[in-house]
């Protein structure tokens, strides 16, 4: 941020994005390692790098097309590109932070009070990060962001501070907060690591400090340990359980920004899976509640809700809205993690986006698939927990820009997506089709088998490199030495709750294992049907589900 004591320039913004992208590129493997399960499955660093690099590339292109591009227009390009390029939860949260930050700066008189303005922008970015999550968990990148913005506000409040002092204080506070994250999350302490998203945010803040001062920040040393046990946090749609709220309420809201904090507080008291995103007087509201009227009344109190959609998870109670789009028909967009899985989804009529651990699709890629399919009604199957939020943002963007109906079924595993698409029926009413696919995905109990890449502590106990690991519903539940024994253990646990159909998807070099496990099911559970598919997915030689 060139000559930051007198104001922020587009040259400075561009330089910051370049430095941040290069820094995240250098640190991406380190950050990925902090967020790795006992297999090399973490991609937090990669997701944050790809998010920022998308913003960099868009800003480069915009400046090349218009050498006189204004600071405000350049920041708008940056914010939208970050959102469209966001990958995974960490990338989406970072994109929301960048959007809030540049939005505040674009509308402020920076030259008058640069330190105070920048500190306020950082505080707004922190609030945006918490709002993006809905149910915040401390000891994560949210905590690191809060520490940085609090330090920025404190320094700016002294009166004589320069903008560079604010950046320096924020970066230092972020590094200190990162070191404390294991004290806030027990799983981090057990694994001996700091939070991966927090580390990525520190890299970004260090890049801001470097841009402002020309100095490189104090080198950071990684702590001992490379394993992070996943912590469950709420994302849109992940609480669709029998004992959870009965209704999903979504609407666009025209409201003054100052009323949104009260709206969030009201909705948080009514239900969960709360997401309120937007700005400049237009907001997108999503919440799961039992009291639909109260959720809508909260919107009326805050402003003018419109395009209201209410879905009962057991029975549809809202009529489909009128549409003026020239698009016709219905399509499914599915994320596939291997060539065989791609073929399976395509054979069922889906438009496939390549994904999976380490190569999760961006919001922009999902939006492009939704746009390109040409349908008036689109169902999205993210088939991965970290892709659900990116899919939600792509869906809302498509609805706002294209006037199409888009529903995201929060499938957290490839086999859940296969179960959902197996009951897809384009001839049904859209809401009924979505309801049936959602219910089928929810009732597909899923698991997987993989191999530990390093020594680590899992939910099932310690493991050594080369150990066979069994996954049930996203958690490591079995540790053993033989893949077939672990696979049969996983299946027996899944079948303990009953079931009529077992689906087995073999990964790379997992065909023989799949055949042996299928034979075990046929021998010991003759009343259960078995379907075996070649998925070709890396890292997981076997994916299984029971319906």
TrEMBL record:
- Superkingdom of the source? Bacteria
Which InterPro entries does its entry note?
Answer: DegV_domain_contain, DhaL_dom, DhaL_dom_sf, FakA-like_C, FakA-like_M, YloV-like
Query: What are the residue boundaries of the DhaL domain, all occurrences included?
Result: 11-210
What NCBIfam families does the annotation carry? YloV
Please identify the protein, giving its name as recorded: DAK2 domain-containing protein
PROSITE patterns per UniProt: DHAL
Q: Which Gene3D superfamilies match?
A: 1.25.40.340
């Amino acid at each position: 941020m060139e000559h930051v004591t007198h104001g922020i320039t587009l040259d400075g913004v561009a330089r910051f994005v370049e430095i941040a992208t290069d820094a995240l590129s250098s640190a991406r493997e380190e950050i990925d390692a902090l967020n790795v399960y006992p297999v090399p499955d973490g991609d937090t660093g990669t997701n944050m790098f790809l998010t920022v690099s998308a913003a960099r590339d868009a800003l480069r292109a915009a400046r090349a097309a218009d050498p006189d591009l204004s600071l405000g227009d350049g920041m708008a390009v940056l914010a939208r590109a970050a959102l469209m390029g966001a990958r995974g939860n960490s990338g989406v949260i970072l994109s929301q932070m960048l959007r809030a930050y540049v939005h505040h700066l674009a509308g402020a008189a920076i030259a008058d009070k640069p330190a105070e303005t920048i500190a306020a922008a950082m505080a707004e970015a922190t609030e945006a990060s918490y709002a993006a999550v809905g149910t915040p968990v401390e000891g994560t990148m949210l905590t690191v962001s809060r520490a940085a913005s609090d330090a920025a506000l404190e320094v700016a409040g002294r009166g004589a501070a320069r903008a560079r002092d604010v950046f320096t204080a924020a970066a230092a506070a972020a590094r200190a907060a990162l070191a404390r994250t294991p004290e806030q999350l027990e799983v981090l302490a057990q694994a001996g690591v700091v939070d991966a998203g927090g580390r990525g945010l520190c890299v970004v803040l260090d890049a801001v400090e470097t841009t402002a001062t020309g100095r490189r920040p104090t080198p950071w040393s990684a702590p001992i340990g490379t394993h992070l046990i996943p912590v469950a946090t709420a994302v849109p749609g992940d609480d669709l359980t029998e004992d959870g709220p009965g209704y999903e309420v979504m609407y666009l809201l025209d409201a003054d920004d100052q009323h949104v904090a009260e709206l969030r507080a009201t909705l948080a008291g009514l239900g969960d899976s709360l997401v309120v995103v937007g700005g400049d007087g237009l907001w997108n509201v999503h919440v799961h509640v039992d009291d639909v009227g109260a959720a809508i009344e909260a919107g009326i109190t805050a402003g003018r809700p419109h395009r209201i959609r209410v879905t009962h998870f057991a029975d549809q109670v809202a009529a489909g809205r009128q549409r003026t789009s020239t698009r016709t028909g219905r399509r499914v967009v599915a994320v596939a993690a291997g060539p065989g899985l791609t073929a399976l989804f395509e054979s069922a009529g889906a438009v496939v986006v390549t994904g999976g651990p380490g190569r999760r699709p961006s919001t922009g890629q999902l939006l492009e698939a939704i746009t390109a399919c040409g349908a008036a009604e689109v169902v999205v199957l993210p088939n991965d927990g970290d892709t659900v939020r990116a899919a939600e943002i792509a869906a809302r963007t498509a609805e706002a820009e294209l006037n199409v109906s888009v529903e995201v079924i929060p499938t957290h595993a490839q086999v859940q997506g296969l179960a959902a698409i197996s009951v897809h029926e384009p001839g049904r009413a859209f809401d009924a089709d979505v309801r049936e696919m959602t219910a089928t995905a929810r009732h597909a109990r899923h698991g997987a088998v993989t191999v530990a890449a390093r020594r680590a502590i899992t939910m099932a106990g310690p493991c050594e490199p080369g150990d066979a690991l069994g996954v049930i519903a996203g958690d490591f539940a079995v540790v053993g030495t033989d893949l077939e024994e672990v696979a049969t253990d996983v299946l027996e646990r899944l079948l303990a709750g009953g079931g009529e159909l077992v689906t087995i998807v073999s990964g790379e070099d997992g065909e023989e294992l799949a055949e042996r496990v299928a034979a075990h099911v046929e021998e010991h559970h003759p009343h259960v049907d078995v379907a075996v598919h070649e998925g070709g997915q890396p890292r997981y030689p076997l994916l299984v589900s029971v319906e």
